[in-house]
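Hi support team,

I'm opening this ticket because the web form for multi-chain structure prediction keeps timing out on my end. I have pasted the exact lines I submitted so you can reproduce it. The total is 692 residues across two entries, so I didn't expect it to be a heavy job. Is there a limit I'm missing, or should I split the entries? Thanks in advance, R.K.
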Amino acid sequence: MSVQAPATLFDQDAVRRAVDTVLTDFLATQTHSALDRSLPQQAAEALSGFLRAGGKRIRPVLCVAGWQAAGGTGTPDPAIRAAASLEMFHSFALIHDDIIDASDTRRGQPTVHGQTSTHAAILIGDLALVFADQLLHGAGLTPAQLDAVLPIANALRADTIYGQYLDISHAGQPSADPGPGPALTIAQYNIAKYTIEGPLLLGAALTGDDDAIRATLTACGMAVGEAFQLRDDLLGIFGNPTHTGKPSLDDLREGKTTVLMALALQNADGPQRRVLHHHVDNPHPIDAGADQIRTVLTDTGARTTVEEMITERRQSTLTTLDTANLPTYITAVLRSLAVSAISRTT
Amino acid sequence: MSVQAPATLFDQDAVRRAVDTVLTDFLATQTHSALDRSLPQQAAEALSGFLRAGGKRIRPVLCVAGWQAAGGTGTPDPAIRAAASLEMFHSFALIHDDIIDASDTRRGQPTVHGQTSTHAAILIGDLALVFADQLLHGAGLTPAQLDAVLPIANALRADTIYGQYLDISHAGQPSADPGPGPALTIAQYNIAKYTIEGPLLLGAALTGDDDAIRATLTACGMAVGEAFQLRDDLLGIFGNPTHTGKPSLDDLREGKTTVLMALALQNADGPQRRVLHHHVDNPHPIDAGADQIRTVLTDTGARTTVEEMITERRQSTLTTLDTANLPTYITAVLRSLAVSAISRTT
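Hello R.K., no limit was hit. The queue was backed up. Here is the completed structure from your submission:
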């Protein structure tokens, strides 16, 4: 079965639609196969519902962009299917993260463990990880492509899990951190490599083995990825919950050591520090406390510093792209993705 | 690096040692790599400790046996490494199962979630699943071997998770089951395919594509696998906790619908049924109740029926092996594995 080709040289919406078609068809097949074998179809159905509820498909889009950046041409089928595998892996990661973070909502709906149970959600996440393998292994890759892609996919997966492990190791221990360093390391593994650099490199590996292109994609990917997480930190505190789809202050409730919070703690005076600690130590801050925290994050300069860090990374990305030897339309795509990842409000 | 070859045509202990060497070396590399990159080394160390604590390595041994059954000769490296991947997948499955079953001990030690936390154990299990991929993809398989093995590995993984999902769907609802059917389906997916048939077929796929051998391995694998689970059910109630390494009556505490329990419920009279329900509904039966349950399981004939079901499956396995065209020494190995899996006391 051929997947629908993007209508133009790089049409992000067409990539999203093609990826969603692959995912929908795959899960429908899994659901029927489960029914045929007297196995519970709820697991595959839960994944369908989770994917239907939303998501920006940023990793699949970047995977296909990486493929084209490295010179990929012709039928996009294998790239689209590899991209779909990344989205399935992302479902796994989110479902388990939501358990770990005790999140109630995701994409404006109850989380999978809220709809089922924690135990079912562990298994549904596990199944998504196996499904991600099935999608990648069944993507129609040549032996050479498979050989190039599997180590990258495995590294991306391990790094993502390590990043999350780092995250929970540091959660609730903000006072042990001397500054924003550890939070930035978490952002590098949990987000930059996972969300931006990894998908770009995975797509590029489908095509060739060009060190210069890989270096460009890594430089852009890490800068955009870090900026993406820094923006996320800001949105988690200052964003509109109606837009972001998750409750404001969720990160604070989980005691997460964001760069924003680490900077604020580093610069806070006594009373400011007490405000931050009070809310970090209290797992259920009342909304009345939210404004106090926002004030401290602003007054300590942390908010401004994080905005500056984002600007630096956007600038370095644009400079890298300007001097790189990529196809013009791919430079445009990466530039627009960088800007939207960094300037987004949701 | 070459792994140590089994000393004789099929030396189970040598296979176990070779697999453990691969696992130890792999995890040592992972631990060092994590340290080098400022990532937490605890995850890989926890997996090392888990593997060191015990385990019979039945899946790796069967994988190598399947490889030889299908005509595998020459260096066993790829088969040993594929076998090690199965053991790593098994670690993943046990770590998540122990969370789901709220088990306190495994292999005579505290479970991983007991040693760390539930959240860390979810991630350590996730990492083990990714490591299983890395071991399999890095096993030095040819493209043709990889092409044959990946779908089998993925099916084995999905079926295992589906089996566990079935298990928790039925847990705590024994009265809804009309007989031993659903419990047997769980045993087929959760154990027979996962523990016996899957590893045999995976090993066989490394070598060739012989339908007759596959049919033999499936027939033996499913029969031994079901018998293995039936023995497990008996050991869980009547076994010696010092030998089995897990508390007696654990299955009852979890409300699991074993074939043993389903048969007893089907045959029980009023007072017997009340004894069973009392303890199924009570998540912490006191040891004084254990003897009452054992008496009911015996008096209803359930224990005898399960022993008969085990005997039937042992007999069918031995008949299949007698009439199959396998190398003599492999028939001997499979026969001994079948007998030990079925007659074991731990």
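A quick check on our side: Residues 12-343 of chain B form a domain with the Farnesyl Diphosphate Synthase fold (CATH 1.10.600.10). Let us know if the file doesn't open in your viewer.
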